[in-house]
Amino acid sequence: MMIIFFAETHPIYSPPLLVISVLELVQPILTVLSRCLF
């Protein structure tokens, strides 16, 4: 929520925050997949 609000209020910094939020969402999925595979 805070990341989306900050991106809306500061559009210049929105691409890096989007990348950070996507990485934060993907990281636990990657850890679960790695635990299942290995």
Counting DSSP E segments of at least 2 residues, the number of strands comes to 0
Distance, first to last CA: 34 Å
| H/E element sequence | HH
SS field, number of helical segments = 2
What does this structure look like?
- The protein has 38 residues and is mostly helical.
- Helix content is 84%, strand content 0%.
- The chain is built from two helices and no strands.
- The radius of gyration is 13 Å and the shape is rod-shaped.
Which secondary structure elements does this structure contain, and how are they paired or packed?
Layout: H1 2-9, H2 14-37
Helix pairs in contact: 1-2
Give a short synopsis of this structure.
The protein has 38 residues and is an all-alpha fold.
What labels would you give this structure?
38 residues, mainly alpha, 2 helices, 84% helix, 0% strand
